[in-house]
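Practice problem. Given the sequence and the SMILES for zinc ion, write out the predicted structure.
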Amino acid sequence: MDPSIRLLRELVAINSVNPTLVPGAPGEHAVAGLVAAEMRRCHLDVSVESIAPGRPNVVGVLEGRTKGKGRSLMFCGHTDTVGVAGMTDPFTPVERGGRLYGRGAQDMKGGVAAMIAAAAAVANGGGLASGRLIVAAVVDEEHSSIGADALVKAWRADAAIVTEPTNLDIAVGHKGFAWVEVDVKGRAAHGSRPAEGQDAILRLGRVLARLEELDASLQARPPHALVGTGSLHASFVQGGNELSSYPDRATLQMERRILPTEPEGTALAEVQQILDALVREDATFRGTAKAMFSRPGYEVPGNHELPQALAAAIGRVGGQPRITGASFWTDAAILGLAGIPSILFGPGGAGLHSNEEYVNVADVVMCRDTLVELATQWMGRLR
Ligand SMILES: [Zn+2]
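Answer key:
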């Protein structure tokens, strides 16, 4: 069995469900132990960095022969997974028809196995002539990326590959997201006294109607070449006290997906415009909006050589390089904004976050081989 697939099977067999997403889940502790042991076996310099109790990042370094000279490259992947509700046997890796099934197989233990196996192949093949390869396995991407946030405070590289699943395409950018809360005030009154009551829920309806129009207009704009258009959806609504009363308050929590070219504050500004317009139409309307959390979109600088270098590496292992974008958010944005130009490249599969997840076995091997080629070319290898 290819060593990358053996490692993938071992990674999938360890439950590393994110404990912030699923309270009581074990988190990344055990899987980080396996990752660290695997990195030590191929003589990387390993640091285990506790980010939260029981939740360590693992960073392995392969230093070139000319210590401190030459370029550096980082491979980065997350070790947590989403929950397993609805899955019958999520931690037993099953290989069938060229696919490996199990929670995290695609998102993203396939990519993590490929990047570690690539570092092992470079190390066992004589090491690097110069430069530095950094392999980072980080926690918590599926919730709020505390792992990547901590990683970029301690580590630097000239470029990075985030091995999230891309079907072996080169994804040079992705969307961001912003969560906004809207609070609409009404006036409580007995249901029989319409002159006194102001219905906060119906008033929130005015906001919702405008948001639906805004979403339609966002999706009708000319699309970004890589990631398409922005969009929004209402995630939660809450309000009301009892059947026979006018509700005094209604709250909406919503998400806006933002383009790499849109500032993070776009969503809040759009919602504020809607609220301002509603006040102009009816002076008794009272609503406020606040930002809850956001992450920007990201795009590698257009003239950066990393996508070309990766395309060349793909060609050398017999693949067909394709440049694309990803619709989902990833840690590449955190690395990129911290000054480490980053792109996504990982194996194909399907079912991420659903109850039948798999990765294409041949893609994991191809991903590993491509990363070896890239590292060799980027830093120079001893023969
Ligand atoms: Zn992922």
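Check your answer against the key. The pocket of zinc ion is lined by residues 78, 107-108, 141, 164 (CB under 6 Å).
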